[in-house]
Amino acid sequence: MSGRKPISDVSSDLTVEVGAASFSLHKFPLVSRSGKIRKLLLEAKDSKVSRISLPNVPGGSEAFELAAKFCYGVNVEITLSNVAMLRCAAHYLEMTEEFSDKNLELRTENYLKEVVFPNTANSITVLHRCENLIPVAEETNIVNRIISAIACNACKEQLSCGLSRLEHNFAVKPIKILEAESPPDWWGRALTVLNIDFFQRVLSAVKSKGFKQELISRILINYTQNSLQGLVVRDPQSIKENSLDLEQQKKQRIIVEAVVSLLPIQSRKSAVPMAFLSTLLKNAIMSLASPYCRADLERKIALQLDQAILEDILIPANSYGNSYHQLYDTDTIYKIFSIFLNVEKDDDDDDDVNHLRNENELSYDFDSPRSPKQSSILKVSKLLDNYLTEIALDSNLTPSKFIALAELLPDHARIVTDGLYRAADIFLKVHPNIKDSERYRLCKTIDCQKLSQEACSHAAQNERLPVQMAVQVLYFEQIRLRNAMNGDNNQFFFGAINGQFPHRSSSGAGSGAISPRDNYASVRRENRELKLEVARMRMRLTDLEKDHVSMKQELVRSNPANNILKSFTKTLSKLNSLFRKTNSKPLGAKANPETRILFPKLRRRSVS
Question: Assign residue 102 a region: left if phi > 0, alpha if psi is -120 to 50, beta otherwise?
Answer without folding.
Answer: left
